[in-house]
Each structure stands twice: as structure tokens, then as C-alpha cells.
Amino acid sequence: MGIFERIARTLAIAPDTLERIAGTIAVLVFWLVVSRLGRRLVGRAVEGSAARFQMTRVVTYLVGGFALFVIARLWIQGIAGVATYLGLLSAGVAIALQAPLTNFVGWLYILIRRPFRVGDRVQVGAQIGDVVDIRPLRFVMLEVGNWVHADQGTGRVLHVPNGVVFKEAVANYDEAFGYIWNELEITVTFESDWRKAKKTLEAILERRAGEIDAEVRRRIDEAAHTLHIKFPKVTPIVWTTVVEYGVRLTMRYLCKPRARRSSASEIWEEVLDAFAGLSDVAFAYPTTRRFDNVSEGKADARADPPSHVAPARARD
Fold first, then answer.
1. How far apart are CA 157 and CA 141, in angstroms?
2. Residue 233 and residue 240: Cα distance in Å, rounded?
3. CA dist., res. 57 & res. 266, Å (int)
């Protein structure tokens, strides 16, 4: 009598069942040892945290998939057994595991179609964040925005089911060419020399954003192999618009997704310093104008900044 027969008789279970249990334990130990060894080898051989993270994930999934296959073969013998087993489970799985299966298919879609990768900043529905992990049932993001302004991090971690990629639009900040457009609006009074103000703003943008033109065009050319991207103008520009209380000058420029707030802050500081030296340029704000003594042929125009009311039209 072999050792398995004696242990099986002691435990009151079938010998073949005991062999399968022992084989399963051996496979699990093999999976743990090889996964840990693979992580150490990847850590020594691969430089860069992003590449190391991706390779570690690949090794973990490959070893885990192989271990799962071996365990399935231990417990399900023969093609007929597999077909019977899957046939019995299909109805229940379709109902009870609908959401997990959708998330798993979403994971395959993310890996194959690449709507985003680890490290990308994305918006899925109302949620914005930096992707830090992609798992078989969900992906993980570091939240951006919400109660924090200008695309800054909140410190929270978002766990998003993979199936959401089939239900919501996915906006990727980094996929196209690594830059996004940002706009800053400045309004000067009608009495200001708006042309001088516009030239001042154009000079500021040219100094700060003009240097990225070559890099942007290079990235657009690289992205053109997979995306039909056309930008007739990638250099910064200032647009002119008239609003109720002045001339609005909109600065439009390219910046990296994670530098939106810092770039805006630096540009605003230069604008404030530059406008402080222009005696014929003044910032505008919503005002209410009153005209008195009209019947006597005299007009007394006053402009008072409102405390809590919206701009109103001039009245006689």
C-alpha cells in the first residue's frame, strides 16, 4: 500500500482526490516561488519604474495563468469532462457573474486596444485621474480635480471597474501627443489700449510657450501613424472678443497635462508685472453705470463695482 493510500484511508477520502489536492498545493507553491523570483529578476534587469511595473505584471499574469491551467487539468480530466463542466456552469455564470465577466472582457480590451496605459491621465465619465494599475477586474487611478482646482491631485485612490470602458467615454490626456490646450482670459476696459495689451500678452506667451513648438510638431508627426491629427497652428495665440464691460483677450497655448496649473500661475505673474507698467491699460470688471441730471443737459457718469449683482445695462 502506497503512502497516498494510507493517508487517504486515514483521512477517509479517495486516493485520487488526495493526489489532486497534493498536486494543487504543489502548483500553488510553485506559483508563489516563481512569482517572487520573477519580480526580483525584473527588479534587477529592468530600469525605470514604469517599465519595471509593466514587466512585473506580465510575469505575474503569465505564471498565474499557467498555474490555473495546471490546476484545472488536475481536477477536470479529459475534453469531455471539460465540456460537461462548462456546460453545467454556463447558465449560472452568465447570470451570477455577469459584472465580473464584463470587467474581465474590459481588461482584455484595455490590454489589446490600449485606450490608456499605466501612467496616463484619463477621464472616465465624471472621474479624472492618473492610471497607476490595471487589474483583471478593475483599474486604479489617483484622483485629480473634484474639490481641487486646475487638475491637481486630491490624494484619493479610485477603483474603477474595467467594464466602464464599454459604457462611458474615455478621454486620454496623453495619448495624442502629450500636450493639451489651455486658455487664460483677461479683460481690459474699453478705454484701455487693447492693442498694446494684446501685444504684451503675445510676447509673454512667445517667451514661455514658443520653445515647445519643435517638440510638439515632432510628437504630432509620430502620432500621425496611428491617429489622424491635424493642427493648423500649434504656436500660442491671443484671441480678441468684446464682452459687456470690456475687451476680452484669451491666451491660448499648449502645455503638458500635469503642468496646467503651474504654467497658468507663472503666466499670470508675468501678466500682472507687465500690466503694472502700462499706464494706458487697466483690468476690467463687471460694472453698473448711472447717468444723472440728464434733463438739465448735464451727465454725471459713475462706474461702481457691484458687490453681489450681475452687470446691468446703462439706463437714462
1. 6
2. 17
3. 39
Q: Which residues are CB-neighbours of 280 under 8 A, at least 6 positions away?
A: 192, 193, 196
CA dist., res. 315 & res. 194, Å (int): 26
Provide the grid cell at 226. 496611428
pTM score, two decimals?
0.62
Q: What is the pLDDT along the chain (316 residues), one digit of tens a residue?
A: 566 566 656 666 666 776 777 778 888 888 888 878 877 787 777 776 666 766 777 777 777 777 877 777 777 664 455 555 566 556 665 666 678 888 888 999 998 888 998 889 999 988 899 999 998 889 999 999 888 877 788 889 999 999 999 999 999 988 877 888 899 999 999 999 999 999 999 999 888 766 676 677 777 777 766 677 776 677 889 999 999 889 999 999 988 888 888 889 999 999 999 999 999 999 988 877 676 665 555 545 445 554 444 444 444 3
Helix (H, G, I), strand (E, B) or coil at 122: strand
* Cell numbers describing residue 43: 527588479
Distance CA 116, CA 270 (A): 36
Nearest Cα to 302, choosing from 283, 287, 313? 287
Using CA atoms, how far residue 219 sits from 71, 114, 170, 177, 233, in Å, is: 47, 18, 21, 5, 14
> What is d(CA 269, CA 272) in angstroms, rounded to the nearest whole number?
5
All cell numbers assigned to 137: 477586474
